[in-house]
Structures are given as C-alpha cells and as structure tokens.
Amino acid sequence: MIFMCKKFVIGAAVLATLGTFVFGRDVVSYVKTAGNSVRQAVKSEVPVDFEVDRARKMVEDLVPDIRRCMHVIAEQQVDVETLQSEMQETELAMKQQKDAMFTLRSDLESNETEFVYASRTYSKDDIRSDLAQRFDRYKVATDTVKRNEQILKARQKALDANREKLENMLSAKMDMEVQIEQLEARLKSVQAAETVSNLEIDNSQLTRAKSLIKDLNKQLDVKEKMLDAEGKFTGLIPVDTKVEEKRDVVKQMDEYFKSKSGDRVAVQ
Q1: Among 9, 31, 110, 154, which has the highest number of CB atoms less than 10 A from its own CB?
Q2: Strand locations in the chain (E)
Q3: Distance CA 8, CA 27 (A)
Q4: pLDDT tens digit sequence for 142-173
Q5: Can you give the residue ranges of every domain in the chain?
Q6: Cα torsion at 88, 89, 93, 96 (round to 10°)?
Q7: Distance between CA atoms of 97 and 106, rounded to whole angstroms?
Q8: Class of 48-192 per CATH?
Q9: Is the pTM of this model over 0.85?
C-alpha cells in the first residue's frame, strides 16, 4: 500500500513538472479546462431517462425535509396555543386581583378602622400592607404579560414563516412532480420517434417475392405460347364448344302419344 502511494505521488509530481514545463504558468488553466471538458463529455453520455429518474429521486428526497418542517410547525403551534392559554389565565387572575385591590382601596378610603374578610379581622395597616403587596405583584404580572405578548407575537411570526415555507415546499414539490411527468411523456414520445426513424425494413424478402411472381408469369406465358404453337389455344372464348340443349320430356311425350294413338292427352 505504501509502495503504491509512493508511485502515485511520484507520478503526480512528474506530471506536474511536465505540465509546468510544457504550459508554463497556464498549466492550471489547462488542467481546469481539460477537467471541465471531461466532465461535460461524461455528462453528455448519461442517458436522459437516467437523468429523469435522478430528478424524481431528488424530489422524493424532499419528503424528509417536508416532514421535519411539519414537525417543527406542529411544535410551534402547540407552544403558541399553550402560551395563549397561560396568558388568558393570567389576565383573568389579574382582573380578579385588580377588583380586589380596588375593594381594599375603598376600605382604606372609608372611615372604618377594622375590616373582616374570611372570618378574620384586619386593621387599616393590614389592608394598606396587603394592598401594597398586591399592587407590586400586579405590576410585575403586567410586565410579564407584556413580555409574553412579545414572545407570543414572535412565535406566531415564526410559525407563519414556517407555514409559508412549508406551503412553498409542497407547491414546489407538486410543480416538480408535474414537470417530471411531462418530461417522461416527452421522453417516451422522443423514444417512439427514434424507434420509428431507426426502424430498418428488410427489402430483400419483398424483392425475392416480386422476382418469383415475375418468373411464374414468364413460365405461364411460355406454356401458353407452346400450346398456341401446337394449335391448342388457351385463354380464349370457347366459341366452338356446343352446349347440349336440355331435353323437354313433356313435349316429347305429347308429340309421341298424339302421333302414335291419336288420343287426346289429358292434361292434369
């Protein structure tokens, strides 16, 4: 193996040196041009039907990408729906907290000194402290809702972009499938035309048949000439042939009995 590698390296070095000696600085350009020519020549020899199958395989290979895109879209859709549900619950809880804060605020503005909630008694200071905590939490919750709205907007934007991407991929896949079907139809049409144009008819059999018919006619002509020469004309209207007339037996009987007995013949 090492010996083969050495031979390959030495051969490459010899070719590089020889190419540089012959073509000078343009050796790289010559190598690229030669490589491109070889590549084009090999590509031109590839059958069209093979290229059509290759195009169909490339379109089929899009299916895994499409399924991955569909999976990502499904996950994003679930995330969006989950976040929307959480935001609705948060907004409902904030509305309840807001109502509670205004209730406590009304208590603070009243002239009462004690307040009873859930069988427990609270002072104004308790109410003020609870209201302050509720208000701070409400403001934090409001900021959280605003951030979630931005996150939801970004997720919906990404979801819409991926949906559009999926639709474009499906549309492109369908268009390419139609184009491949059209290519196959055109290829079959071209192949049929090539088959007809390349069809070679064996005229030798037809020529031999014509020659045989000609020889047979000649033989028959010779036989007729020979018969004519012998006085046996053929192929003419048989003028001399007499046709025997049909016998009228009834008339003959009538004539016979009248002439023999003189009796009247009864005609039934």
Answers
A1: 31
A2: 114-117, 120-123
A3: 20
A4: 999 999 999 999 999 999 999 999 999 999 99
A5: 11-45, 48-192
A6: 60
A7: 14
A8: mainly alpha
A9: no
